[in-house]
Structures are given as structure tokens and as C-alpha cells.
Amino acid sequence: MIRRWLTLIVVAVVLFFGVRTGFGLITGLQYNRDTESLRGADLAVGDKGDSSVTNIALFGVDADNDGTRRSDCMMVLSLDSSRGKVKITSLMRDSKVEIDRHGEAKLNHSYSYGGPALAIRTINQNFDLNIEHFVQVDFSQMANLIGALGGVEIDVKENEIKELNKFIGEYCRAAGAPECPVEKSGKQMLNGIQAMSYGRIRKGGTGDDWGRVERQGIVLEAMFDRIRGLSVPELIQLAPKMLKYVTSDLSLTQITGLAIGMLKHGMPTIEHGRIPVDGAWSYGGSQGQYIVFDVEQAAQQLNDYIYNDVPLTSK
Fold first, then answer.
1. What is the pLDDT of residues 45-63, one digit of tens each?
2. What residues are paired with 133 via a beta bridge?
3. Where would a tag sit more exposed on the chain, N or C end, judged by fewer CB atoms within 10 A?
4. Please, is 284 exposed, middle or buried when counting C-beta atoms within 10 Å of its C-beta (0-12, 13-18, 19+)?
């Protein structure tokens, strides 16, 4: 059983990050330890004095038409071995923050300006954290990852079908797969392309970025349910398939070490939060392009959540 749990944690950490980072089609990227991007970088790491919690930056990366890489999804993965909890906190990409040497800008611009190193430094400085490591998944991978699990069961709402199907034909053609529109609402098994499309929609009255974050959480939980139902041999076979799509400065040995630490209290629980919390933000800027909130207050809320287990609730 311990072996099963260990393998499950290793796979789940990768999958939990991947599904939160946005969704896309596979491009054949291999597992790669990108240690150079952080080597010698000033990450503005603070000392929180709590060795039982490890924070890791999670980036979902896409590319603009000009080839510029950007992180459209940024999260903090907190592994709390003393409480046996895995916490994933979404940081809204349009949050207005201070970026070193670039002034005030959207949070996700930090990755475009300076890759993982500057993005981590920006998160640490604005939210008073001590992140030293990152995991990155390209938007081009989620359909195949979900497909490897045999799909996921999702309760699709009537008002989500039109947006869900908007680009499915394009995705299917790119993958060389038959078109597979979702034809009805209700609880149903979605394949990789369908689930990817479900997790990316945000327009047409479906809740903007806030609704997208919620739907990605639904897919995350559905994936975890699928993982829990796998046998030990299936988990062992699945782990390397997942890891090869990940870029990180963490080695598999380090990930395994973190996983072992999470088994002190048995199978850990999984929680998801979001900064800013409901009721504590507004749209700002000349065109309402920013999400504006009290960053210092948000940092305190995030630290209380991570270290003191205080729930992230509405203001």
C-alpha cells in the first residue's frame, strides 16, 4: 500500500500541476531538468522558518505568434508534510503587481520578461514567499495526458456546450483525430480533447477567467479520481509518461523525496485556493485590463493559508 501511495503522489503532483496550467495538444516535449534558468539567480527567497512546508512555483506556458514565451497560468504548490496536505493556490494572471526593474504590470508578464527566475522572484517579493523551485508544463500537452487516463467524467452545463465545442474541430484536425463535439449537457465521460476544451473556455457567459479556474479545478479532481482507481502496475506505467512532458529544476529523485515526506499522515488531502479571494478585488487600468487588490493583504492571507491552515475565504 505504501508503494501505491508513493507512486500515486509522484504522478499526482505532476498531473495536478498540468491540469491547472491550461490545456492543449501534445508536441512531443521530453522531460527536461531546466537547472540553468535558476542557477545563480536572485530569487528574493525569504526564510519562513517552517521546514515542513515546501513551496513550488507552477507555470503553464504558451507561445505568442512571434515566438515569445508567456505563462498564462501561475500557481503555488504547497506540500505540507506536518498536516498531510497538498495545497494548490492559483494566482490570477492579470493581477497588478510590482515586477523588479519593470514597474507595475500584470503578474504573468514577469515570465515573459525573465523566464522562471524573474517569475519566481516576482511571486516571492509580492507575496512574501520562499519559492526556490519550479515545475512547468506547456499548454500543448493536456489532451494526451487526459487521454492516457482514459478520459475524465465531467458534469457539463448547458451554457458551456457552445464554447466547449467552438475550437474542438481545430484541435482534432491538429491532432489527426476524428471530430468529437460534445452533444449534450450532463455528467459524461470526456476524452482528452473534449476535457482540454472544457478547461479552457471562459467566454460566452461562462464566467471569464474566474469560471475557467473553477472548471480546471473540476477537471483536476476528475483526474485524481481516475488515478485513485488505478492499480499499482498501472500507476508505475503511467508515471514516466507524465514526467516526460514536464520541465523542472527538480529531479525525479527530489520529487520522490518530497512524496515520501507527504506520507507521514497517510494519503494527503488536496486543497485548491485562489488569490485574490472573492470580494477583495476590482478591475483597474484605463481599459480594465488589470485585477487590482491589496497585495500586502493578499500576501498575508496566502501565508496564513499555507502555514497556518487558515482557509482562503471571501473578504
1. 888 878 899 999 988 776 5
2. 56
3. N
4. middle
